[in-house]
Please model this.
Amino acid sequence: MESFILQSLLRALSLLVKPDTETLGIIALSLVVSGSAVAGAGLLGIALAAFLALRRPPLSGALLSVLNTFMGLPPVVVGLGLYLVLSRSGPLGALGLLYSPYAMVLAQFILAFPIVAALAHSAIQAVDPAVADAATALGATPLQRSLKVLQEARYGIISALMAALGRVMAEVGAVLVVGGNIKGYTRVMTTTIAMEAEKGDFVLAIALGIVLLGISLGINTALYWLQRRGRRP
Model:
């Protein structure tokens, strides 16, 4: 048993040193799908967070409660909901997005958006009110004042984006349901690991697991560094 594990690990490391086209495609698609989802969630989530924190509209507290609740959305539930919407009998079935990378991006966007919005809101609210007051006293426009506050909250906002990226990179349920794990088209690292482990072929699964661990380590290291920078006066 130990020999089998060691051989699988050595073959996995060899595969990472000289990856084949399929392995590179799986890694690349994972990065593109998750990166696109977090980029979209970042644009809309930060805008919503800034609006709620700086304008404080009515019912903002209720909306924040919803965002905080949705931070723990089960990926499988998101995948199921999107499947019903994007299937042929669903309201958006005519678009033909089911079992495509676009559906996977949409699923991960839904998972990432509340994380970015809620954490970015906390970062913006933590900015000293004196920053906005000073900008106003110097004649800044409302837009310039908002941008100054966002600049002060930049480390917290980047941390929100990194946290969302870590969440969606590791999820398997939603992308499996709406993507279908189609070889060469919608197969990403997490779905490949699940499939290869089920088949008993652990070489590729271990190799991709090492890649995911490396990405997770990089994200956590970056978060730790950003949090330290954010605490400095």
Summary: Residues 45 and 117 are 4 Å apart (CA to CA). The chain has one domain: 26-189.
